[in-house]
Amino acid sequence: MNEEYDAIVLGTGLKECIISGLLSVDKKKVLHVDRNNYYGGESASLNLTQLYERFRGGAAAPATLGANRDYNVDMVPKFMMANGKLVRVLLHTDVVKYLEFKAVDGSYVLQKGKIHKVPANDSEALKSALMGIFEKRRARNFFLYVQDYEEADPKTHKGLDLTKMSMADLYKYFDLSEDTQDFVGHALALHRDDAYLTQPALPTVLKVKLYHDSLSRYEGLNSPYLYPRYGLGELPQAFARLSAVYGGTYMLNQPNVEVLYENGVAVGIKNGADVARSKLVVGDPSYFPGKVRVVGKVVRAMAIMSHPIPNTDNAHSVQIILPQKQTGRRSDMYVFCCSYAHNVASKDKWIAFVSTTMETTNPQAELAPGLALLGPVDEQFIEVREVCEPLEDGSKDQCYISKGYDATTHFETTVEDVLDMYRRITGRELDLTAKDPAQVEAQ
């Protein structure tokens, strides 16, 4: 291992694997090391044996759950927007050729104790119980404005300066009710709390536009989301394969690896007597004690079920967002569900997740509103994880550290962190405009 590298990457979580792949494509000499003997780190997908080792002390899984090899249970469950940045990264790197995607069946939102499908087209919007008849007209005007809006074309702005106007004022301009604001802000724009209301409207309008563009990316989509067959564990492995194609070197099962510093600057890693030097070190927070702070905790429940989530039209895959106001919380709650149709569970089994940012010391009670939507479960596991972020940007000490994974069940915040890390490491933005996301096939 006594070699010189352009970059050393620690941990095989999705963020680290994407960075490793991007730097390798940039013709950088990359060494990628993980203390674990599997890919994925905190964002791994586990089989039944690994799941029971992690949560039940290695107890045997009930035979009724089916074969161990049929399971790929995501520890950080997330869907990707069909027109979003992760799909564009997959295209930019050509990693898409290693993966198969399946469209997600539905996007739902909780309103007044009931879950409602977020309308996927005009006819669904007309039938939706989310809004009354007059509110639907007002909402239609808002959505037409958003769909037509182009930052570079003032004619589409209708005299509104969205860089100065708050989102609350834009809602008021279109006379949208509080309930409509709630589902637009949380189920379409995917904000995690209501802080966005007092901020400039432009970012939210662009987020709603992304939702619409993702929904219309493929004919007949019932949601804007895609999900890879065999689970999210396929993503880090696909980027690792990409890095290897471009000459990246991988070393798993290295439990004693440490960052090597000289005068407070990272200059490589040591692993026992072995040393590998590099210009910079990238990694997840667990490799950089003293250089990160805890900014919160996420609690996730994982449930194995023998049925789809009730009131979701027997869907094999759904996202349900529970906006903060609907549950009396300060932050949103998320329900994610996929099934054997995605090759992540045994025949006729569904896997559901409920996740949120912890606000009390009672994780099970916090998840109660989401768990109540699932119906009977065969097995349930609950985990609390700290979310860390770096204290500095890496420019002084050459340590480029990813943030922990938040409670959201979509990839937008994850990819924003990756792109920010790439910009800090290379000094330039990653150009994701060259390829059309329609090139990604979804079944």
Automatic annotation (TrEMBL):
Q: Where in this chain does the entry annotate a coiled-coil region? A: none
- Signal peptide residues are none
Q: Which GO terms describe its molecular function?
A: Rab GDP-dissociation inhibitor activity
| Taxonomy, superkingdom | Eukaryota
Q: Which GO terms describe its cellular component?
A: cytoplasm
Q: Which Pfam families does this one have?
A: GDI
Q: Which GO terms describe its biological process?
A: protein transport; small GTPase-mediated signal transduction; vesicle-mediated transport
Q: Which family does it belong to?
A: Belongs to the Rab GDI family.
Name of the protein in its database record: Guanosine nucleotide diphosphate dissociation inhibitor
Q: List the source organism.
A: Gonium pectorale (Green alga)
